Amino acid sequence: xxxxxxxxxxxxxxxxxxxxxxxxxxxxxxxxxxxxxxxxxxxxxxxxxxxxxxxxxxxxxxxxxxxxxxxxxxxxxxxxxxxxxxxxxxxxxxxxxxxxxxxxxxxxxxxxxxxxxxxxxxxxxxxxxxxxxxxxxxx
Length: 139
Fold this sequence. Notes:
single chain, two-stranded antiparallel sheet, 3 helices
């Protein structure tokens, strides 16, 4: 594994990530979990077939125990892949916030005080003051 691939996976750059893209980890994790469910279904069907045999079912029960254990492990791996996808998605958001925060910080004026009164912002008119506003009544 190259260092660049490891660095990209662990700390993706905010500029080249798009939050609208579907997560490949989620798709892969669900697919892996579905394979595990199919393997578990095979073991379940085999157990149902030999349920009435009595003593002759020992051979089938022996191999289906291993298959069921394997199916459980595959399902857990699928869930882990989905969770890794969630963590990577969170990293993308953290990196995008790190990239956006410097642009959101207001430019300091020469005297260092924030402007007071009514002002026009890119989001519409706003009013600033040095005092804390009163809490709004809810309800």
